[in-house]
Amino acid sequence: MVWLDRMRNKFRANVGIVSLDSPSSEVEDIVDAIARNVALPLELQNSIFLWDFAKGFRKVIPVGNSGIEFEEVEEFEGCLDPVPALDKMDKYPHSGLFIFRDIHPFLMGDRAELVVISAVKNLSRDLPNSGVMIEEGGERTWTPFTKRMVILGQDMSFPNDFFNVVHHLHYSPPEQRELEEITNLMLDEFNRKTVEAYGRELEINLSQSERQRLHRAALSLTKNEYQTALQEAVITYGAIDSRTIDFINAWKIEKLLVYNVEFSAPPEVPVGGFDLLDAWIEERVGLFHTQLEAKGAGVNLPPPKGILLVGPPGTGKSLCAKSIGQRLGLPIVRIDIGGLFDSLVGETGKKLRQMLRIAETISPCVLWLDEVDKALAGASGPVTDGGTAKDVLGTLLTWMADRKAPVFVVATANRIDGLPSEFSRSGRFNAVFKLDVPTSKERAQILDIHLGKYELRLPDTGLVELVRSTKDWVGAELADMVEEAVVTAQSRCIKASLPFAVELQDFKKVLERMVPQAQQSPEAFQEYREHVKNFRPASTPEEEVEKKTVARTTTRNIKL
């Protein structure tokens, strides 16, 4: 695990105190890992101590190949408060690794105590120089020894003056190789128990590719969480099969709901049109899932970074974002950046960083940054919001440049001119797509999709007439028009005591009273097109479509 390597290297580099932001449920496993992978190489395996408020200091004793036991330490008796505990560690006259659990509230926030803060700062200076002066035969000799401190806690955020006082690390959950080992051990255990209880082996029906999908689904879960989820799946289904993958995904999402993360459901209707965007996504589905080596190319291709979708309201940006998650088979984490803005300076950036960490935690996933232009509009001009927009922009740019987790970003914006140039420049995203009013072919597809929601179908001639009458209508307006026509038809049929049926006249009535936004504000649409003229179109432009036909849900084609 990366965090273990970094902790060990920091201690070897004479760093005195390292903090590890880690889940509370994993404390024993983490202490076990530190004992074997940090204390042992530093030759501190016989002097590892764990402190917490409930039991004070206990000696940590590794057992066998895995697991730990605790032993009471008489010389540390009565050190339940942080200050005497830190003092005991400071005066301990031998080498040792001291692990403090949940001491961080006394170092930050409302519960911070100056005496604890001061003690930790002094220890940061003194621990790397620990030793004892021994006088023998009239000569005094300084005998150094190794003494190090680890702070364990969840959601730690130290003040700025702790920079280089406490070196902060983040716990990383098991990687795919480790998950495979955990799975093999657990399946052996499940199988043994099934044989003992029922005289038969556990039913395991997972292909190699399904095992890989299972481990991808479990990425971001801690060891204990994955073990619990897998055990629940076995109890639920009485077997390990493809249903286990969906179970693990649902378990992971349920876990993260406590953080108020908004998970977007797949779109309720298929996406109509966007053939160029669709083809681009199709090319990259395999890349994202496997981060694979290009077959025959001899090069390693990284997973795609993401895309920026720009278009006026109603053109289908949100629908596209949801459908991309569905196509990739990944959960969609939605962040409304504007909704994160807080009146307290610094709080917005803090909230955003937490949400980005959660996205990495649940990865692989799609991160949908909705309406980024509204949130970042003030980042390029004079500071009018206490620097919040600039802080948000800086946080996003740093994260997008540095992230290693497989998070596919889909950012949506109504106006490209509302975005800072550094956000949309080349390299931030794999591509920037512009969305516009649908072509005649796309309008026919969209109308058919929304008619299908009501189990309706117009004759070919009626559909053609509607397509020709809705030039410059965006997808959302076409959906509203179909719904309005259904309501109009229902009202008409009720008044006339007729069986329900939607006729072309119902659509014509709606067309008479609805005016699309492109006709209400033609200058705004023209200005938008000028701003995005150099970006990729999401759809083949009308003038480039060779045959003005549209394939319906049957084999018939309609001339437009």
Main attributes of the structure:
560 residues; Rossmann fold; 20 strands
Termini separation comes to 60 Å
Give the C-alpha Rg. 30 Å
Estimated helix fraction: 40-55%
What's the story with the biggest beta sheet? 7 strands, mixed
- CATH overall fold name of the largest domain: Rossmann fold
Share of residues in strands? 15-25%
- Which class best fits the helix and strand makeup? alpha/beta
Overall number of strands: 20
Oligomer: single chain
Count of helix runs: 21
Q: Which CATH architecture of the largest domain would you pick?
A: 3-Layer(aba) Sandwich
Describe the strand arrangement of the main beta sheet, using strand numbers. 4-3-2-5-8-1-9
Which superfamily, in CATH terms, is the homologous superfamily of the largest domain? P-loop containing nucleotide triphosphate hydrolases
Instruction: Give average pLDDT, whole number.
Output: 85
Count of the domains: 4
Give the CATH level 1 class of the largest domain. Answer: Alpha Beta
Shape: elongated
- Spans where pLDDT lies below 50 across 5 or more residues: 292-298, 548-556
